[in-house]
Amino acid sequence: MRKFLLFFLLFHGFVTLAQQKVSYSIQLSKLNQDQLTVEVKPPLLKSGSVEYCFPKIVPGTYANYDFGRYISNFKALDASGKELKFSKKSINQYVINEGQKLSKISYLVDDTWDSPEIEGEYVFEPAGTSFQKDTLFALNTHGLLGYFKGFEKSPIELEISHPKELFGASSIKSTHKGNKDLFSAHSYQEIVDSPIMYSVPDTLTLHMGKSEILISMYSPNHTISAEQIGEKILPLLEAQKNYLGGSLPVQRYAFLIVLSEQLKSGSFGALEHAQSSFYYLPEGNIQTLGQTIRDVCAHEFFHILTPLSIHSEEIGNFDFIKPRMSQHLWLYEGLTEYAAHHMQVKYGLTDLSQFMTTMQEKWQTMHMQFNNEIPFTEMSKKVLDTYKDQYSNVYQKGALLGFGLDLLLRKGSNGAYGTQDMMRDLAKEYGPNKSFKDEVLFDKLIQITHQAAVANYFKDYISGNKELPLNEWLNEIGYGLRDKKDGDENPSYAMTMGFDFQALSVNSETKRVYIGAEPGINAFGKLLDLHAKDELISVNGLALDIANFVKSTEEFMGKIRVGEVFDLEIARPNGKGGFDTYHLRAPFERTRIDAENTIYELKNPTEAQVKLRKEWLKS
Fold it and tell me: Strand locations in 459-589, DSSP E?
């Protein structure tokens, strides 16, 4: 009797687990008017209402994307195929009244890359979806799959039927049966953290110790191959392995890379995931894009450490509908960006001159585009609304904060301990399944590093808004930052269009490039009467819209000569919600390039400065 009871309990347990599973199915070959149909089989539901939700925001993004915007023709069906009543609680939430009768949900999904008719915030391509018949299906699964409220931890099965010539690349391994792939995940969070890219296969698998690295490439004109990408990032991964302590903390990782002939939003980049990263980059050859690819891959791969492994409760218990933001973007994005560049100079993938040029550009961009009076912790907490236009400063000021902290730690430890070591020690305390409390991180880092000076650093520069003492930090390793007091006995001149490229941003509504702030306008621009917020239309008849900006500026700079007519057409905000168009004309002239805010090497560094520099760079 006991045997039978035990068997019964075990059997009942297996049945219950099976009934809690959520199953999705998608047929890529049945793409109709750029829409895919998603069918969902629910877990066993109790009587009463049930909510089916789409994410408002997903981890790694810092914008309200409201993926429910892309859903239409939503249907809830019982076992006989009869439609059940439902109500729409919000753009992302559907409430089905008789949940116990629910047998299936179906709906249509538009892709985010090619649905300009759908209003709302533009979804950055690495976080979105693209459905291109027979060529590319970029499936960030959070853009297609919803979840049943209360069942976010239920196991997932996703079946995808695909054209036979397409291969589905993902960090999640799938089982194959004909033209069907079956992906399994332990939870909704895991499936939406695992993008899938279907394309004609151009893949490469690298083996590094116990880690398997998949590279899947889509280039519309075949300008770059997965093999070429592999050649670029293999040394990078070796360096990152060493930077992380000698091994990669993942068994399998996927680089999913899409190149595009036209950057519709004017932006490119990537989105990190626990075991993969999704890239959207301009199409070009490996010579022109190689370093960009290496820089972006270095940044995204380092996210396997933070926030995907080390993170606060806001991320560990992520709410897809009502997200709470952490105050530590300086750690998640800023320190990650710094580590991506520090690692490359530390292990010989680039040189110190290039590293300093990168830091210089970040310093200049930080002052040209962003409000540095806002404490970084406050910006982080309010990044979805009040300070959403300040987010990109995480890659500028955030990286400099990482640089300053690293040098502070190394100075206090006679060069022996830096942010690289700090993150390893922090990983001993926290991990994917153990989050820290947002408000205790600073105290924990002071405790871990055993350096009291770190407390003032956090108070002054991260939770406070003191100007970063970059010159002091640079002096510690034998470099300096020029300011206006230094003068310039041998000024240099360059051909410019009246502005610095670091000052440019993109207006997502008008799809035009604009000048972000007054400091980005140089002497020639002031002569032209350029203003901050001016949007660029053309230069000497060459279109400066997003699609043609790089091509037109290169063509213009190759042809123009000093003294010839320079005609810059701009759209200037008129204060009434619209724009007035102007032609700014002047004889073209070279622009004096001031030495202000440039980083230089000290002529006679001290022994202490040289020693700390060597310790900071020692591999």
Answer: 479-481, 492-494, 504-507, 512-515, 535-539, 542-543, 565-573, 579-587
Q: Are both 448 and 349 inside the same structural domain?
A: yes
In angstroms, what CA-CA distances link 10 with 1, 15, 45?
Answer: 14, 9, 21
Domain end point (choices 146, 177, 196): 196
What pLDDT does 9 receive?
37
Q: What is the pLDDT of residue 5?
A: 36
- E strands, 171-236, where? 174-177, 180-185, 196-199, 203-208, 211-218
Asked if residue 219 is part of any domain, the answer here is yes
Same domain, 192 and 207: no
Q: 418: closest CA among 605, 615, 614?
A: 615
* CA atoms of 515 and 381, how far apart (whole Å): 27
Same domain, 157 and 227: no
What are 92's two structure tokens?
């992302």
Classify residue 558: in a domain, yes or no. Answer: yes
Question: Could you say which DSSP state residue 243 is in?
Answer: H
Q: What is the 3-state secondary structure (H, E, C) of 86-142?
A: EEEEECCEEEECCHHHCCEEEEEEECCCCCCCCCCCCCCHHHCEEEECCCEEEECHH
Length of the chain, in residues: 619
Whole-structure pTM value: 0.84
Do the beta carbons of residue 289 and residue 282 sit within 8 Å? yes
Encode pLDDT of 329-372 as tens digits.
999 999 999 999 999 999 999 999 999 999 999 998 898 889 99
- To the nearest 10 degrees (0 to 180), the angle between helices 352-369 and 397-412 is 130
HSE-CB at 323 with a 13 A cutoff on CA atoms is 27
The answer to whether residues 547 and 571 belong to one domain is yes
CB atoms within 10 A of CB 222: 12
Number of domains in the chain: 4
Of 138, 161, 196, which residue is a domain's last?
Answer: 196
Token readout for 139 is 């499936």
Strand partners, 51: 95
Same domain for 551 and 501? yes
Instruction: Give the tokens for residue 214.
Output: 């998949």
Q: Are 424 and 245 in contact (CB under 8 A)?
A: yes
How confident is the model over 60-80, as pLDDT tens digits?
A: 888 899 999 999 999 999 999
Considering the domain architecture, whether residues 324 and 381 belong to the same structural domain is answered as yes
**Cα gap 470→59, rounded to integer Å:** 31
Inter-axis angle of helices 336-346 and 397-412, to 10 degrees? 60
Which residue range is the domain that position 206 belongs to?
202-291
User: How far is C-alpha 90 from the geometric centre of its chain's CA atoms?
Assistant: 27
